[in-house]
Write a structure and sequence with these properties.
Chitinase A, domain 3; Trigger factor, domain 2; Alpha-Beta Plaits; alpha+beta; 441 residues
Length: 441
């Protein structure tokens, strides 16, 4: 067999595959054996039909030859993919141009291939991650949460500020005109946003004794709230002393409490930074690929795979799709749109990594492919040569090599991208890898 690329236009290529007569003859023999085990011929058991009888039963040698060519083309096409190194992304359009009746066979394949977009700006890529640094204000806020649990209320004669606890007399006017609902001395914390949309902003600056009308939330069935402001109270928190810390926390002093909280928050923030690192860098790299060059066929395929995976996960958990949609407050169209957006992002990342492989010469070596193949085979509990043969026969050797190359690109990206926090301060990931604590702001 010989495969050559005869032409390329945009993202489509034409591959010409020439088969020798001996290869066609072998294909006919294989087809005869296969068909003999499938057809029913009176007087013969399946698989025991003589070839001459089978040919006559099918309608002559031409029919057998045609069926043999049809069955053999997928395997020869897979070999052609490996030999030419093309990267098809759509179903091939196959045309037999010679040898349908006798002699050598030639068929042409017209297929869409993966585009190779330009990747500009990857060398100076900056990625924003959650900051691993802990500020004094964050520690102070955590300590205040502890103090709030032991706080008392004290009446004040001043305008309401955030954090005050106000006694409210509420009258809820129902949107449907039904009987109003009333409650007295309802203790409400201003700033909790638990009353009605925009209520907390309207309460700020008012004083005890004033009245206020608030719009209700549509989903609550309340049209308006009639509010009378009673006593305004402020939270009086205990003094932060070693004695209070000993009596109310797991620590024995204020200094020990601050140090303990600092260590907890550092660990959490470093973990958050680490979790965000890879995905953030890949998404940022993918954004360098113009969405206009992303093939629709790849986005559709990725969307379908994600939908299929979701279906399997729901089935494993015995959850109906309708119940999942209700629980997540989604519509079928909304779910599909979200999956499609994720799929388009994933395709752009894939194209970007491949472009990075080309730009930086990161193509996997034969040794690296062999090493990864052996590792994959071991994980699958199958011989490495069996996996290699399966990849070759299915035309996926190139895809496997591409995955190894992309893994190298991910590592290159991690080492060359600049990571910064939301304030633009550079994050040294090597220090996080070494377990070194960051310098806190």
């Amino acid at each position: 067999m010989q495969a050559t690329i005869s032409g390329q236009e945009s993202s489509r290529v034409k591959v010409v595959v020439d088969l020798e007569e001996s290869e066609v003859a072998d294909a006919i023999e294989r087809a005869a054996v296969s068909l003999a085990s499938q057809v029913n011929v009176k007087g013969f058991r399946k698989g025991k039909v003589p070839k001459s009888v089978l040919v006559a039963h099918l309608g002559g040698p031409a029919v057998l030859r045609s069926e043999a060519i049809r069955e053999a083309i997928p395997a020869f096409y897979a070999r052609a993919v490996d030999e030419t190194g093309i990267d098809p992304i759509s179903e091939p359009d196959v045309t037999v141009v010679r040898g349908e009746d006798d002699g050598p066979v030639t068929f042409e394949v017209d297929v869409e291939v993966r585009p190779e977009p330009a990747l500009e700006g990857y060398g100076a890529l900056s990625v924003t991650l959650p900051s691993p640094h802990v500020t004094d204000a964050e520690i102070d806020a955590l300590i205040d949460r502890y103090r709030e649990t032991d706080a008392t209320l004290g009446a004040v004669d001043r305008p309401i500020v955030t954090g005050d606890v106000v006694s409210l007399d509420l009258r809820a006017e129902r949107a449907d005109g039904g009987e109003p609902l009333s409650v007295s001395d309802y203790m409400y914390t201003v700033g909790s946003n638990a009353l009605a949309p925009g209520a907390d902003e309207l309460l700020l600056g008012l004083r005890a004794g004033e009245d206020l009308t608030l719009p209700g939330a549509a989903e609550s069935g309340v049209g308006t709230y009639q509010v009378h402001l009673g006593q305004v109270n402020e939270r009086i928190m205990p003094d932060l002393t070693d004695a209070w810390v000993q009596d109310n926390t797991e620590w024995s002093s204020v200094e020990e409490m601050r140090d303990g909280l600092l260590l907890q928050v550092r660990r959490r923030k470093i973990l958050e930074t680490r979790l965000a690192e890879r995905d953030a860098a890949l998404v940022r790299l993918g954004e360098l690929v113009n969405p206009e060059v992303v093939p629709e066929v790849l986005v559709t395929r990725e969307t379908n795979e994600r939908l299929h995976d979701l279906g399997h996960r729901l089935a494993d958990q015995k959850i109906e799709l309708a119940d999942f949609l209700r629980a997540t407050n989604q519509t079928p169209d909304g779910l599909l749109a979200a999956l499609r957006e994720e799929a388009a992002r994933a395709v752009r990342i894939d194209l970007a990594l491949r472009a990075l492989v080309r730009a930086e010469g990161l193509a996997a070596t034969d040794e690296e492919v062999d090493e990864e193949l052996a590792s994959t085979a071991a994980a699958m509990a199958t011989p490495a040569e069996a996996l290699r043969r399966d990849l070759s026969e299915s035309g996926r050797t190139g895809a496997f090599r591409a995955e190894v190359s992309k893994n190298k690109a991910v590592q290159w990206l991690r080492e060359h991208v600049t990571y910064v926090d939301p304030e633009g301060v550079i994050i040294d990931l090597a220090r996080l890898d070494d377990g070194d604590e960051p310098t806190d702001a």
